[in-house]
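User: I'm new to structure prediction. If I give you an amino acid sequence, what do you actually give back? Let's try with this one:
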Amino acid sequence: MRISVMGLGYVGAVAAACLAKDGHEVIGVDPQQTKVDLINAGQTPIIEKDIGEIIAEQVAAGHLVATTDVKSAVAATDLSLVCVGTPSLGNGHIDLKYVRRVCEQIGEGLPDHRGHTVVLSSSALTIHAEPVARFLEIGHVLCNHFDVDAAGRLTGEITKPVIWGRQKAAAVQQFCAAGTVDLTRSYFYADGDEDAALMKLVGFPRPVNPRRGLAAAAAEHDWPVLRMSPTGRGFLGCRRSVLK
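Assistant: Good question. You get back a string of structure tokens that encode the predicted 3D arrangement of the chain. For your 244 residues, that looks like this:
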């Protein structure tokens, strides 16, 4: 996940470093240029056991960067954590001015946040895939179509190339290129052996109850495997577990 951490003090710097270590892409944000420069140089702005080493490793790996620009950080991430200070006032209450300020800045950045593009990519035909997409409120469908002649009559054939295996991967690549969707930041959920080609292209492959061939590919590439089992609560009722 792409996460922005607002504030690079003792709480924010530790949170940003540890989240990056856990595999997330993290942007640390702080109004003090000195802190930002230290992070980007792979150095710690605080004194905390092991944090300097973690920051150096994650900056070198490209998982952690810092900026003073709240708006750009919000636009580039999926989740923002507010870790700014709340000092005590003379009357014993806490001073929330820093929290209010950063929340206002986050709000200013939200209009530029693109959100998520969800695509149903299936080797099924339109008569099968499109009703599912409508039920799930998915606006983009990449699937197979019946071929028709010049008069609009069905020929009995399927339009070429058939979306399956490597052609499915190619169709998704073409869609992403046209819509400026970054595959390295995308998730792909599937169960079929033929889906391994597309799994290899995305940044976050997620085989779900994979068949034998896809399970073997998941083991080879160390992809997390999702196991879904019914819970007896109807069509959408299921229990999820993640296996490494």
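You can read the tokens as a compact description of the fold. Here is one thing that stands out. The mean pLDDT is 87.
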